[in-house]
Request: fold
Amino acid sequence: MKSVITFRTERKVPRTGLMLVGWGGNNGTTVTGAIIANRKGMQFRTKEGIVKANYFGSVTQSSTVLLGNDSNGKEVFIPMKDVVPMVNPNDLVLDGWDISSMNLADAMERAKVLDIGLQEQLRPHMEQFVPRKAIYNPDFIAANQSDRADNVLTIEDKWAQVEQIRADIRDFKAKEKLDTVIVLWTANTERFSSVVEGVHDTADNLLAAIKRNEPELAPSALYAVASILEKVGLSHSQLSAATTAPTAGKHVCHCATVSGTLTLTNCLFHLPTTDYLHQWLAAEHLCSRSAGAG
Reply:
């Protein structure tokens, strides 16, 4: 089986916003702290000595690409970030949602991921950040999250929740004068969702299922639909079931974000509406079933 993928990018680097779902969690605070630490050129002491903030481990920022050979036959490598115009992570504008109202400085301290010396430097820069109200469905996440769920949308209608997330994206984009927005899932892993015929199998069925408040629709699905309808970038580590919406020209990417590790990806995939819907739904359906859903 042979696949042909066409990469397409613009030459002008856009002013880009990053909205994190689960902004106040271990992953969200670590990503935010890492970006600020690099932006400010922070250094901190560890048991191994002084460490300067860096993007080691980032595919786009730290890896290299073989360009070719020089006149002596020696291989020449260049940083991946220099191959095409790419957003510098230090330039990202940050925002997001969380079920906890705790500011990000306190949330960072609660997470206990970053070294204390770095936390002390980051605190004045992070305490200004307070997450937006998030979608909360206790049926899809661990019960131990209920104690911190004091910053949740009170509306229970799922379509109204999607519309609120869309409004948040538009508000962020307008206030910060952004060219584009990426929504990144950094929240808790959800339980697997059953793949229900007439709910998750087509874009039309999915939208109709949201509007009739079907129970087997996870928050991750609602954030994904809201992002796609707003035509913003979506980077998702896991979706509980097939999730899509009928909008063309999306940037879609799957990546894992784990505590202490910052993975920055630049998704350049564009698919026409029909191809996008079919390929996305097929992939999500297979992934969900192979993992034991349905």
